[in-house]
Design brief:
single chain; alpha+beta; five-stranded mixed sheet
Length: 478
């Protein structure tokens, strides 16, 4: 909803409308409304939340919800950023980019993306040398450095970022430890796709509950195959029309929300991330039985049906063997590529593309997460049969959250046990050929995504998605 500044604060108004019986309990609606409209992260960043409940324009009640704010120990942030090795890495990451960050307010809460308040008002921090980085931490209480994905004065992304983010209800149902295992399992599947297409990447801990995969690319122009696919959509839907009708139809298609910005590199980067998520959904989850039981899937509201005789004649079905015989399971439903439907995806693992917007923010490697007090460290990987995989310790929720504690990272660096530079892979920019081949191999899914939207793609069954990928793209148009 709309936001406005009032005094030194920012207020946001959000509206939720739904039918209600006469005997509803207002307290239940207050709690539901707060959780449906705001994520836990947003609530944690608010100083106060007030909910007013109306019925036919008459107010039924109002309630102030308590906001819990979790902060890292301030000494830990100052100590971590005092290390020259950390300053060097952060400065290299941010020196050519606009910097977004988390600021400690006078009331003790943390607000992402706020500006620094000075005697002359609010302004952006300008970091022109390494020393100013540490000064900004001490003087302004900055805990978290969030550089933009594009460099200053460059209107294109210099990397594509894929984030994995388990929904709050998924964590509540599975528990944090099993959700973390599922999260790591899916992330490793994504890494496998990137390896198959010879794409370089860096994977790091988000500092909270997911992984960040950064794929270096100077995406000055959208991928050629991507634009060819958009032209295919337009041509196929307008070829049989008269010239006047065809022009009108083309204009209408190009105004579709998922199509209209196909010349925008940032938009194309987000659709690439969506397509990676779709590829994982429909092709890569065959062995998910070693991660989740059938009961786990049922708890996540995944559809489970007894198999019929004709099902045996079909290929690519998601089948679980049970004591009562095989069942058909809607396994792709555990993932989401639609970051806009927040309430719907709470039971899912989101493959998130939101960092790939113009000036989109992503936590810098070795930056501190403002809420958890954990450091965004590069993941520990090992090579198995020539393919990089997560070190077994990365699958352990408790190990990772201990491994990334700011105090521990500070001790390891200051005593010379950990050398941050050695843990960061050298940046090697990807050629576009790998991206182009991936788009070509999954063009049918991309066409469906562009025409129907991410939410419609999530609702496909595996066989339907495979058929769409096979039949919606005409190779002659390449």
């Amino acid at each position: 909803g709309p936001s406005w500044r009032e005094g030194n604060g920012v207020k946001t108004c959000a509206v939720l409308e739904f039918p209600c019986s006469a005997g509803c309990i207002t307290a239940d609606i207050f709690v539901f409304a707060a959780k449906a409209l705001f994520s836990a992260e947003e609530l944690n960043h608010m100083q106060a939340v007030t909910i007013n409940l109306y019925f036919n324009d008459s107010i039924l009640g109002t309630e102030d919800l308590p906001v819990r704010v979790r902060l890292p120990p301030p000494d830990a942030a100052i100590a971590l950023y005092s290390l020259p090795q950390i300053q060097d890495i952060l400065y290299d990451t941010m020196s050519s980019r606009h910097v977004l960050f988390t600021l400690k307010t006078p009331l003790g809460s943390m607000r992402q993306g706020m500006m620094v308040k000075t005697l002359s008002g609010w302004k952006n921090v300008e970091i022109t040398c390494r020393e100013e980085l540490y000064t900004s931490v001490v003087e302004h209480g900055i805990a978290e450095f969030m550089p933009a994905v594009n460099r200053v004065d460059e209107d294109y992304p210099s990397s594509i970022t894929i984030e994995t983010d388990p929904g709050s209800m998924m964590e509540a149902v599975l528990g944090k430890r099993k959700s973390w295992i599922l999260n790591t399992y899916v992330t490793e599947k994504i890494l496998g796709i990137l390896e198959r297409y010879n794409l370089y990447y860096m994977v790091k801990f988000s500092g909270n509950k997911g992984w960040h995969i950064q794929i270096p690319v100077e995406l000055k122009e959208p991928f050629t195959v991507y634009q060819d696919i958009v032209k295919t959509i337009v041509t196929r839907d307008t070829d049989s029309l008269s010239q006047e009708q065809g022009t009108a139809a083309r204009d209408e298609i190009l105004q579709l929300e998922e199509v209209k910005s196909y010349k925008d590199p940032f938009f194309v980067a987000r659709r690439f991330v969506d397509l990676v998520g779709a590829r994982v959904m429909f092709y890569e989850l065959r062995d998910i039985g070693r991660i989740l039981t059938l009961d786990d899937l049922k708890k996540l509201h995944v559809s489970v049906q007894p198999m019929k005789r004709e099902d045996y004649l079909l290929k690519d079905l998601d089948i679980y063997e049970t004591s009562r015989g095989p069942v058909k399971v809607g396994i792709p439903q555990i993932l989401s590529i639609n970051p806009y439907s927040r309430f719907r995806r709470q039971f899912k693992l989101l493959i998130d593309h939101s960092s790939n917007k113009r000036e989109g923010k992503l936590r810098s490697v070795f930056s501190l997460h403002s809420k958890t007090g954990l450091v965004s460290l590069p993941a520990l990987l090992q090579t198995t049969e020539g393919t990089p995989r997560f070190d077994p310790r990365m699958w352990d929720h408790d190990f990772v959250h201990t491994w990334a504690r700011a105090e521990r990272v500070y001790d390891k660096i200051s005593t010379g046990i950990l050398h941050p530079r050695d843990s960061i892979q050298p940046r090697k920019v990807n050629e576009q050929s790998g991206f182009e081949q991936f788009l070509r191999d999954n063009a049918g899914l991309l066409i469906y995504l562009l025409q129907e939207g991410g939410e419609a793609l999530e609702l496909l069954t595996t066989p339907a998605a495979v058929r769409a990928n096979t039949h919606l793209w005409n190779p002659k148009s390449q």
